[in-house]
Amino acid sequence: MVKKVLTIPEAGIVITLVLLVFLFWLIEPKFMSVGNIMGMLRALPYTGIIAIGLALCLISGTIDISVGATAGLSSVVFSKLVVHDWSMPAAMALSVAVGLLAGYTNSVAIVRLGVSPFITTISTLYIFRGLGTMISSGYSVYPLPEEVTRFGALQPLGINWPFLIMLAIMVVVAALLTRTVWGMCIRATGSDIDVAKCNEVDVVVIQTSTLVICGGLAALAGVFITCILGAGQATAGTGYELIAITGCAIGGISLFGYHGSMIGLFLGLLTVQIISNGMIVVGVPPYMQSVVVGGILLVSMIVDVRRRTLLNIEQK
Amino acid sequence: MKKIMVVLVILAMMTVGCTPKPSEYDTPNGKLQNGNPIRLMSVNRLHPVVRTITLGFEDACRDLGVVCENNSIEGVDFVAFVASVDIALSQGTSGAIPFVDKAVIEADKKLIAGGVPCINIHTAIPEGELPGLLGWVAADATDYAERSAIAIGEKLGSKGVVAITQGNLNDLENVVTKVFTAKMNEKFPDITVLPPEMEGFDQIAAIAVATAILQKNQDITAAFGTTGNSPVTWAKAAEAVGKKPGDIVIVGMDYVRQNLDLVKSGWVYALVGQPLYEETYRAVELLVANLQGKKVDYANPYPAPIIMLADLGKYYVYADRVDASLEK
Predict the structure, then answer these.
(1) Is residue B281 part of a domain?
(2) What are A48-80's pLDDT values in tens digits?
(3) How many structural domains comprise chain B?
(4) How high is the pLDDT of residue B68?
(5) Chains A, B: CB contacts under 8 A, how many?
(6) Which of residues 303-322 of B touch A (CB under 8 A)?
(7) Nearest residue of A to residue B51, measured between CA atoms
(8) Is residue B248 assigned to a domain?
(9) Residues of chain B neighbouring A283 (CB-CB closer than 8 A)
């Protein structure tokens, strides 16, 4: 029975998560208060939405480091548009379109021109961040219309719209990954691109689609960041690529393709959030927090690797 | 012959490019500069706070008739700062307002050793700590930390719980929170001051930190943040946990427009008005006095007023000017 449970791909992260929650709860019962749980969930979607796109890229065997910069660019575009009297939905749509274009730009270099994904997206990270800075002249775009900040402050079900939208996107992506030919082709491409080609998978279309979606989702996150802060900033999303990659890695999404699920990703992101929040709630001194966070992340990865080794599960 | 012509043309272009236009130095003070500008060498060039600092720099240069260059770098990239010091030395500099920090202290020393008179702004540097430094212009951090404590203590009626956040662990913010806590404990013993937490510089993460603090300590009645982001951080966190404007007495730093609006709307009680504009203006005045051969005071403390609702007008003028410089 135990062995059967441990064979579930997300078992490692669930074990870590349960242990962490129990530990923090034991030290500080307020950790499990409804208010604190809601607070954690409200902080999740900004890196979460970015991580969904990144997970798709990783599963299909590529990567996008420029996601944080895309969010920053989208934040500036969205805020500039609403300041110039565009309606919020129209501004949101155009900002996401900018993100899709950013993703497509990455895909042209990576998929069609054969440049390394890492090098390409590091380059575009600078380009997109620079574009955002150029458009905003380096200033925060502020003040924004009241409807924007009002949307940012809304808390349906005590959480916020970005979280609910992130959940909806995760459900859709999970269904696409598991129930469609496109989803299977993504895994096939990420597993072995040459074998996928031999099996008539159009790897160009597959990797282009994941990179484009990734850009679009990063842009959507940028829009939500703008709404919550009430200001557009080219620096929005700085460093989010690393948090998103961390969430993916902890959530069992292989950095080398094929493996990964949306449930795992959600749990990975939740783990990162729980650790950050737990440090404060249980009162770990600030100068020790980085060490403890890094230590917990390392241990959680070791737990998962050990589980896979014990069960002879292929590691990639 | 053709090659010689090309070389001559390039040399001529370089000479023209490197030589300032005569009119730029055609003022009594400008003539003292020998063609070398006064340089602002800050970090975070595009940050709203640095924009205000730059405004003071530009105004002073214009008013005093000196030629200046803003060589501030984007972000907090120490390597880029060190490179900018080398460029400043190679191109000639008649005075500088450099970024001074322990992380780049060798570059600062190099600048001073290269014969560049330097004034530090924003933090007080004890005499001898940076040999050769001409002086400093800064708010007295101890003073504004104490006055912030008093402002919060009085508003709370001498009882309550105060949370503190810093951007990160650094010399200035550590001193401010330490002095704030000491003053609060001394003057308002019935007010509990929580240990400082780090909010960082990513605003979404900062709000999450402040929200966690509010969830853990639901009796918090005031918050003091030592960065320019803190007013937004605490106002958004308070809103997220269902508080109303004024429920938490929030005091944070810097008079940028978004923070001023938060005071106006009642979410933030007060701002610490670090003299961003004034300190750079004064620094240029001191550098010009030095050019004129006058003696310059080493320590130039400036008051940092606690800005409340009634005081906003003057600071909106600065915000308007920063906006106008964007439009230009």
Answers:
(1) yes
(2) 999 999 999 999 999 999 999 999 999 999 999
(3) 2
(4) 94
(5) 89
(6) 322
(7) A139
(8) yes
(9) 195
Alpha carbon distance B107, B86 (integer Å): 8
Statement to judge: residues B162 and B114 lie in one domain: no
Residue B313 located in a structural domain: no
Report whether pLDDT(B12) > 60. no
Any chain B CB within 8 A of the CB of A126?
Answer: no
Residue in A with minimal Cα distance to B44: A138
- With CB atoms and an 8 Å threshold, state whether B212 touches A277: yes
Q: Does A276 touch chain B (CB under 8 A)?
A: yes
Structural domain including B293 reads 2-139+276-301
* Cβ <8 Å between B48 and A155: no
Tokens of B292: 């004129």
Residue B52: inside a domain: yes
Nearest CB neighbour to A36, from listed B51, B195, B215: B215
Domain covering A2-310 in this structure, CATH number = 1.10.3470
**Does B168 lie in the same domain as B59?**
no
Half-sphere exposure of A138 (CA within 13 A, CB side): 15
| CB contact residues (below 8 A), chain B span 206-235, against chain A | 207-209, 211-213, 215-216, 218, 232
Cβ atoms A51, A248 nearer than 8 A: yes
Query: Which of B208, B322, B323 is nearest residue A277 as measured by Cβ atoms?
Result: B208
Instruction: Please tell me the pTM assigned to this model.
Output: 0.83
Please tell me the predicted confidence (pLDDT) of residue B190. 97
B201 and B258 share one domain: yes
ipTM passes above 0.90: no
- Shortest alpha-carbon distance between residue A229 and chain B (Å): 8
CA pair distance B253, B167, nearest whole angstrom: 11
CB atoms within 10 A of CB A295: 12
Q: Where along chain A do its domains lie?
A: 2-310
